[in-house]
Write a structure and sequence with these properties.
The chain has about 375 residues and is of the alpha+beta class. The protein has two domains: about 230 residues, P-loop containing nucleotide triphosphate hydrolases (Rossmann fold, 3-Layer(aba) Sandwich); about 130 residues, no CATH class. It contains nine helices and 20 strands. Helix 2 packs parallel to helix 4 and helix 3 packs across helix 4. The protein is globular, with a radius of gyration of 25 Å.
């Protein structure tokens, strides 16, 4: 990557005999928003803290602007971290909290005032300056913690699950504000979360971690619709898995047989190099998202049409914008999301459903 701002080269980190980071390489573009996504214990926070300089890595290199920073102390890396618990000083006013880093650096008061004015305008917290941390809400505390980081004008902003302590509605609101602010300032941002919806909504790029390794790096769309393996597919969003065997490949479809059914997968969505590696009799895993299927009218369902199947509704839940169905079909339980179903919806019984061949992802086993 020619415009890589942050680079990790073969980074490894151990705690005793436990390998928290295992040969991680990653390039992060200037001004991008990159999310480190994964379950608890996967290494994402360890990686973020290693970039910040709180942990010394055992192997590899960390570079910012092309310079190796392995041996630089955290305060010289120009990479500022916002912690999950915000870490505001309870005995200081909001003004004192925000300007603390500048005062430690003995910056002239006029410049402190100028930076403070710019920062509070970015985050709309001017009315909070004379209050104490205990007098403001969780959402306001999050903005103050972010202001304390941004006032330092760092090259890289590091965010460690900063929204996890907020309620759902406030979290959704602030993540939108944070993304807009990041774009406006064009600041390279690395964000840690285990929340897939946050990662998909906010990121230019997502790195999915598991057991200290990167499983996949890609855009939110690629991570969701073109997962590299079973772990990524199952961790990011709800998914249906169907194992099968390729029985034929033609100009339009990859034909897969699973138990007693045949499923057609649109072939032109795959890269030529991948298609060239697929062969008849090869075992594959079909990855199908709940929204990639439709419940259709049984009277209009043509038996000759491909990817139309019947199943029995096992149960369902109403989620507001959609109804989620669990369908018993061909010895599997298939999850289907139907959006804007109307008040009645379909309650029970045998239904027909169609799987969109252009929305099926295929992973060789």
């Amino acid at each position: 990557m020619e415009n890589a701002h942050v680079m990790l080269r073969n980074v490894s980190k151990k705690f005793g005999s436990f390998k928290a980071l295992d040969n991680i390489s990653l390039e992060i573009a200037q001004g991008s928003f990159t999310t480190l996504l994964g379950p608890s214990g996967c290494g994402k926070t360890t990686l973020l803290r290693s970039i910040a300089g709180f942990y010394q890595i055992d192997e590899g290199e960390i570079l910012i602007d092309g310079k190796v920073i392995n041996d630089l102390p955290s305060h010289l890396r120009n990479a500022i971290m916002v912690f999950q618990d915000y870490a505001l000083f309870p005995h200081m006013s909001i003004r004192e909290n925000i300007t603390y880093g500048l005062r430690i650096k003995k910056m002239p008061q006029q410049e402190i005032n100028e930076r403070l004015e710019r920062t509070i305008q970015y985050l709309d917290i001017g009315t909070l300056l004379d209050r104490m941390p205990g007098q403001i809400s969780g959402g306001q505390q999050q903005r103050v913690a972010l202001a304390r980081a941004l006032i330092m004008e760092p090259e890289v902003l590091l965010l460690d699950e900063p929204l996890s302590n907020l309620d759902a509605n406030l979290r959704n609101s602030i993540r939108a504000e944070l993304r807009q602010l990041q774009k406006r300032l064009n600041i390279t941002t690395i964000y840690v979360t285990h929340d897939q919806s946050e990662a998909l909504a906010m990121s230019d790029s997502i790195a999915v971690l598991n057991t200290g390794k990167i499983e996949q790096i890609g855009s939110p769309f690629d991570i969701y619709y073109h997962p590299a393996n079973r772990f990524v597919a199952s961790f990011v969003g709800t998914v249906n898995f169907i194992e099968g065997v390729i029985i034929d490949i033609d100009e339009q479809y990859i034909h897969v047989r699973s138990d007693r059914i045949d499923i057609d997968v649109e072939g032109n969505k795959f890269k030529p190099e991948m298609l060239g590696k697929l062969e008849k009799s090869e075992k594959v895993l079909l990855v199908i998202r709940p929204e990639s299927m439709k419940i259709i009218d049984m009277q209009n369902a043509q038996n000759s049409a491909s990817n139309i199947f019947q199943g029995q509704i096992d149960h369902f839940i109403f989620e507001g914008s959609n109804i989620r169905y669990w369908i018993k079909a061909f010895e599997n339980t298939i999850i289907i999301d139907i959006f804007d179903p109307g008040e009645a919806g379909i309650k029970d019984g045998i239904i027909s459903f169609w799987i969109d061949p252009s929305k099926i992802h295929l992973i060789p086993l």
